[in-house]
Amino acid sequence: MRELLKAAVAHPPQPLPRPEGFADAAVLLPVWEEQLLLTVRSPHLPHHAAQISFPGGRLNEGESLEQAALREAWEEVGLPPAQVEILGSLDPTLSPFGYRVFPLLGVLTQEPLLTPNPKEVEQLLWVPLEELIKAPAYAEERPPPEGLAGLWTQPRRVWHYPWRGYDIWGVTGNILHDLLERLRRLGASRGWRG
Predict the structure, then answer these.
(1) How far apart are CA 8 and CA 127, in angstroms?
(2) Could you say which of 3.40.50.150, 3.30.10.20, 3.90.79.10, 3.70.10.10 is the CATH number of the domain covering 2-14+22-190?
(3) How far apart are CA 92 and CA 178, in angstroms?
(4) Is 141:157 a contact under the CB 8 Å cutoff?
(5) How many CB atoms lie within 10 A of CB 52?
């Protein structure tokens, strides 16, 4: 699986210019034994409350994408940076909340003992990649976000991945779609069961 994941991010990500007024953020897609770690965000957060997301957040001054993703994963779920091997990057995407988001794919080098931060994370989800690949995904077209009409002129496609009663959607759904499409293409050529 590690080699398949590594192949999925073997090519450099597509460039995405940062719109004026946007900030950069990084998220980590941690994989352990063919399962992807997602979080259910705390219902008390001001943005994306109770939604499903990857660990991540805004870059601090002088931080690299990798440093930011690993720091946020440590702060949110207690994942030690030393236990993560970053394999590469998926394509960046834009968030309607004014972020250019860079997703980094990583594999865990040992079984994680995680302690979610209750101020940010309500629950941890270990989601088998095979189940996500088979999920009845669908996309919807949404208008440009309010307040960003001058910066965001095109309708945006938002992917939804229903999984065991959860709806994985929005920026998280779009990042997930990018990963799963890459795995599908590679798996088809390598005979992967997914």
Answers:
(1) 18
(2) 3.90.79.10
(3) 10
(4) yes
(5) 22
Residue pair 41/121 in contact by the 8 Å Cβ criterion:
yes
Q: What are phi and psi of 102, to 5 degrees?
A: -110, 115
Give the predicted TM-score (pTM) of the model: 0.90
With b for 16 or more beta-carbon neighbours within 10 A and e for fewer, the 103-135 pattern comes to: bbbbbbeeebebebeeebbeebeebebeebbeb
Both tokens of residue 6? 């590594």
Give me the pLDDT at residue 190, please. Answer: 57
Is the pLDDT at 33 greater than 60? The verdict is: yes
CA distance 27 to 30: 10
The phi and psi torsions of 97 (rounded to 5 degrees) equal -95, 15
